Amino acid sequence: MERPYILHMFTPSRQMSPFDVNMAADAGYQIIVPYTDVSIDDVKGLTQDTIFSRGPKGVARTGIFIGGRDTTLAADMTERALASMFKPFVVSVMADPSGAHTTAAAMVACVEAALKRHHGHHGHHSHHTRGLAGQRVLVLGGTGPVGRIAGVIAAQAGADVHLSSRQGADVAQSAATATGQRFGVTLHGASAGDPAALRASLADADVVLACAAAGVQVLSAADLAFATRLKVAADVNAVPPEGIAGVGVTDDAKPIAGSAAARTVLGIGALAIGNVKYQTQHRLLVQMRQAERAQVLSFAEAVAVARAVLAEAAP
Length: 315
Ligand SMILES: NC(=O)c1ccc[n+]([C@@H]2O[C@H](COP(=O)([O-])OP(=O)(O)OC[C@H]3O[C@@H](n4cnc5c(N)ncnc54)[C@H](OP(=O)(O)O)[C@@H]3O)[C@@H](O)[C@H]2O)c1
Hints:
alpha/beta, 7-stranded mixed beta sheet, 5-stranded parallel beta sheet, 11 helices, elongated, binds NADP nicotinamide-adenine-dinucleotide phosphate
């Protein structure tokens, strides 16, 4: 009998996300086992119990998924799992805490595609579009898992990234510093603690990434009037009301009606991003399941896949 595909799913949270369990099943994993309340110190023992029983052939059909809500902890748990294995007993490890890696990857890749279109709209002659390099990016709800990782990915692509918090500049700055240090990029903090602070940050932004909690509008039409150099506004919140006024959930680089910026602002909604997120997560899980050699799949791999998904969709 062929050995079944097994995915061991570790989370420091009390529950494993049903979303991720469904995704694993739809990617062809046959046996999916959640482990909850997993601490960093549990990872070594769980990983070694994962690798030893299946032998060198079986490890290719065995994977570890790391979830939770904390992107730094997920990165630490991934490193701990890798450090607990040795050849030939090495299994693939994928981390996607709270969907943040695949969601942020999809969001940033959609923004890059929209920026290319935006340059096209305005007759930039260079056929070599710059993408996010040199763009000022404001991440609203920047202290959450999606916002932090979106910020890291944008910074790695050369953007000048500012993570904002309702709780003010100090909270924003400490999230930016901790996240930037962990992932080797420079991130800045920005206050969105009051309308004046938010509007001051908006005035400098080329790109806004709305990553706040579900069901909250973080940018009103009145706020948008201050975003005079904005090119692209992306919103991951799919729960009404829309996170950015005027950006519908299915908008896919659609001009925002009545925007105040001198140039067109392209809006990207949560379902447009969610579609790319879904495909990205699916492909990563399938890639992990089918790989002959063990894979490590984190947000860098998610961005590569999200960019590929969009490149295939491009007209
Ligand atoms: N479209 C998709 O495919 C997809 C996939 C996954 C997740 N999502 C969405 O992505 C968003 C971000 O997810 P997440 O897990 O990173 O979010 P989260 O941790 O729940 O919230 C992110 C940040 O939002 C801020 N916030 C919380 N309550 C708020 C409120 N009432 N008003 C304004 N800001 C508030 C908080 O920052 P401060 O307190 O520091 O301001 C928090 O750190 C959510 O809307 C989620 O539903 C979408």
